[in-house]
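User: I'm putting together notes for a lab meeting next week and I want to include a structural view of one of the chains we've been expressing. I don't have a solved structure, so I'd like a prediction I can at least talk through. The sequence is below, exactly as it appears in our construct file.
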Amino acid sequence: MSKPAYLILENGATFTGEYFGAIGEVTGELVFTTGVIGYLETLTDPNYYGQIVLHTFPLVGNYGIIPEDFESDSVQPAAYIVKHPCPDPSNFRSKGTLEAFMHERGLVGVCHIDTRALTRIIREHGVMNCRITATPPAANEAAAIKTYRIAKPVEQVSPKERVFFSAASPRFRVAILDFGCRESIRRALVNRGCELWAFPGNSTPEEILSVEPDGIVLSNGPGDPADNPEIVDNLQALINPALPVFGIGLGHQLLALAHGFATNKLKYGHRGLNQPVRDKTSRRIIITSQNHGYVVNSDTIDGNTAEEWFVNVNDGTCEGIRYKGMPSFSVQFNPATSNCEFLFDRFIRNMEVTKYAAR
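Assistant: Thanks for the context. Below is the predicted structure for the 359-residue chain, given as structure tokens.
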């Protein structure tokens, strides 16, 4: 028999559902994702570290568990909420069910909850904290939930020491400042002939430059970019007009902060596979995969230093920046999708120009 689960929002609203996966009490920031597919990537994406993820698509788990599609070795969200978990997946690559995987990894899940009503609350009032518990809410519980904050998320998902990834026919050496890098990003670089040194997020410029990289990637990662002043200081010292830099997600935001621009929090973020983005130069629109709650404030971009490259079609927020006088650029969305991989090719061309020009 299923065990009842209560979901309590910081504003006092309560929803009742059932546990699936692991059973336990969890507090975290509640966010929603709109992807019809991609739950495996969501469950293992370091951007979701410590958050409670609400899936708006009602049926989740129908193609099972496929480890080859994971974005990291660990489950990243604190909990997972779906309308209907699929008990009988159908896929020749599947290695098991979603619920069995969540049991194995100790991930708390809630199902048979009104996910549409819950999503509407977030869209109207903005992202908020919540608690999943097996006991009915106490009188003062909402106030305690509101004070919760994820502590040092980048430190939790970043490697503790530098890690090397080889390429079959290496052409370039790339240093990744790993704030929670997705596996698909590393794979895209290796497939283009890049051998990689993945560094902890707080590595010094001297440590990074010691491997003599041809280019630097600032990876995606979780949390508020403004909570990382040490990293911003390191980036300011690392910026070099002759060294190509490619910022992604959190890396895009941190690079902007290093140039003196500002960031701010979105009301409910961009999370899903269907975010339309416009290239301001070509006017081309591409559909992107995104997972973030903060953006670079477009009004703070110094036109003498950089130019806004991409904008979100839905809300006009900054989605990409090109820097002037240096081979550096950054994007807010995930470039490791079929229609966005041209950005990796641009990074490769930048390294070709600077590497062979120096000879």
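A couple of points you could mention at the meeting. The mean pLDDT is 95. The first strand starts at residue 4 and ends at 9.

User: Perfect, that's what I needed.
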